[in-house]
Amino acid sequence: MEISSILPDSSVEWPDIRQQCYDFLCRFGSRRLSSEGCSILQNMHYDQLQLPGTSLIAATVRGELGKIPVGICFTAGFGEDACLIAVHPLYRKRRIGTSLILFQLSKLKHMHCNVAIDHIQLLRCVFMPVCKL
To answer: Three-state DSSP class for 33?
Structure first.
């Protein structure tokens, strides 16, 4: 598995990449993602990717056709505006979510994330990195 930032080379590529990430998050976010956060990603312009505290990263594995995303994490405003994370069901319970959050923390240095108290998997994912720091 590899985790890397998603940074399109040009603004022409951004609408397709944004839509693919949005679709992945909606499909595998277990219907628990904030509508505000999803709206921020869906309406984000290319130049907004460069704003401090904004980051879009993916965990990928190698497949027959190249890299396949298995997890995506998006933050805007250091997580105050949006903090979305989703992992493909076949790749859950492998600490991919935790790895995504650790990567975001190393990149952003700090972030905020609201988690529903009954979302046990995400609570583990969020608190594991904090406990390791």
So the answer is: coil
Q: What is the pTM of this model?
A: 0.86
The two beta strands, 82-87 and 55-63, are unpaired
Q: d(Cα 77, Cα 55) in Å, to the nearest integer?
A: 9
DSSP letter for 88, please. Answer: -
In 69-109, alpha helices (H): 96-108
Q: What is the pLDDT along the chain (133 residues), one digit of tens a residue?
A: 999 999 898 899 999 999 999 999 999 987 778 889 899 999 999 999 999 999 999 999 998 989 999 999 999 999 899 989 999 999 988 989 889 988 998 999 988 776 655 555 655 665 555 545 4
User: Rounded distance, CA 100 to CA 38, Å?
Assistant: 18
Residue 118 CA to residue 121 CA, distance in Å, equals: 9
